[in-house]
Each structure stands twice: as C-alpha cells, then as structure tokens.
Specification:
With about 160 residues, the protein is of the alpha/beta class. It is about 25% helix and about 30% strand.
Length: about 160
Amino acid sequence: MSNIIKKKFTTETSHIVRGAVSERCLYNIHGHSYKWFVAIEGNIQDNGMVLDFKELQPIKEFIDLFDHATVFWRKEEQEIIDFFMQKFHRVHIMYKNTTAENMARLVFKFTQDWLDSLPKAASPPYSLNIKPSYVEVWETETGCAIASECDSNDILVKVTT
C-alpha cells in the first residue's frame, strides 16, 4: 500500500477568469490568498520517508512563481497582456484559462515532470513508484479545486520574474 505526504504552500496571486459566471471574476482582475497542497504518493523508503519534505524545494520554487504575480490566459486580449508585461513584473501566461482547476493541473504536471526526472532506484534515493497523488488549490476559505491528472497543455507559456 502506498503512503502519501502532503505539503502546503501559500501565495498571493491575481488573475481574471474569462468564462466565469460571476461578473466580478469575468470582467475584473482580482486576487486570492491561495493555499496550494501537493500530495505525493509512494512507498516508505529505508529512511522511513516517502520523500523528505526538504526535497520538495523545486515544487516550492515553482509555486513561488505565482506569489505576488498576475496570471493571464493566453487567449486574453493582447493589449491587456502587453500592458501588464510592459508595466509590471511577475506576469505569467497560462496555456489554459486561469481557473483554480487549471492551476491545480498545472502544478500537478510540474510535480509529475519533476518526480519523473528524479533518479530511480530500487532503494533510496528514490522509489520506483513515487508519483503525485493530487494537488489542491484553495482560492478562498470555502472553495478549492483538486487535480489528480494533467495533460501536455497544462503549462505556463510565458513566465516573467
């Protein structure tokens, strides 16, 4: 049976959600105090851990890209994207709409790609079967999205820092 470790990260991030029912979200850039939870599944290694939490630094650094950043969908009006890119730092473009669901998928894909890049061995340093279990993205205290899969389009198209 697999075991799961789960790590919480936080960011302050703004976005606009085209296609939203709420006009506040549909027509306005707005922000959230995001809580990101990344769960990783695998067997316990000889050292007693699935992974040492300290080893999750690459995930922390990826999620940190979103802290005090504005995220746009690549289909946003080009003049809006150009304005933000010229006037502000930390403006990111996602291939998909900037919903909590798609942000969760984006982090799931990053986690999956990162874990796949680790050297595999039958014993430490890393298990053969370590994988992301799920990613939760909490936009508010009452609403979150959970991703347990991703595809090749769950990517950031452009990142500025």
